Amino acid sequence: MKNVTDSFVSLGHWPSAGSFGFNTDILATNPINLSVVLVVLIFFGKGVLSDLLDNRKQRILNTIRNSEELRGGAIEQLEKARARLRKVEMEADRYRVNEYSEMERKRLILINSTYKTLENRENDKNETIHFEQQRAINQVRQRVFQQALQGALGTLNSCLNNELHLRTISANIDMLGAMNEITD
């Protein structure tokens, strides 16, 4: 340790021996070498370092500026997209409401149409039943009339003999003649 302090103390005066040589004492020469290197680096490297730092600063500022511009553009696009989304949502809601009311209108039309169809079918059924009833009644009447007529003819044929038959015919002819005279 004494050598270290001696080397710093001896910095103040140099031996005046006139010879030039290498000092092999590392502890004595290291601080001097380092200070010389630092002074040279600071003196000559200050401009280069300053330029590097200025370039780096400019690149960082440009990057920040570009990022701000991109951010502004992105925010603008986001607002436009939100506006379009709101517009599309409003259109979708309007379409949904229109489609719902259209479906409701079609449903009511279908219900009314089905009701009218059922009502028409019911009327057709009732008309068909009424027609079939009338036809059945007419058929029964015809049969009853035919049977009554056959029965009456059978009774007349069995009750009438030739003389009674001729008298009935003459009476009918006389009545027709009387009617003829009245109308003339």
Automatic annotation (TrEMBL):
Pfam families: ATP-synt_B (PF00430)
Main subcellular localisation: membrane
Membrane-spanning intervals of the chain: 32-49
Superkingdom: Eukaryota
Keywords for this protein: ATP synthesis, CF(0), Coiled coil, Hydrogen ion transport, Ion transport, Membrane, Plastid, Transmembrane, Transmembrane helix, Transport
Compartments where located: Membrane
GO biological process: proton motive force-driven ATP synthesis
Coiled-coil residue windows: 71-98
Entry GO CC: proton-transporting ATP synthase complex
Single GO molecular function: proton transmembrane transporter activity
Membrane topology designation: Single-pass membrane protein
Function: F(1)F(0) ATP synthase produces ATP from ADP in the presence of a proton or sodium gradient. F-type ATPases consist of two structural domains, F(1) containing the extramembraneous catalytic core and F(0) containing the membrane proton channel, linked together by a central stalk and a peripheral stalk. During catalysis, ATP synthesis in the catalytic domain of F(1) is coupled via a rotary mechanism of the central stalk subunits to proton translocation.
Family: Belongs to the ATPase B chain family.
Protein name per the record: ATP synthase CF0 subunit I
Organism whose genome encodes this protein: Weigela japonica
Biological classification of the source: Eukaryota, Viridiplantae, Streptophyta, Embryophyta, Tracheophyta
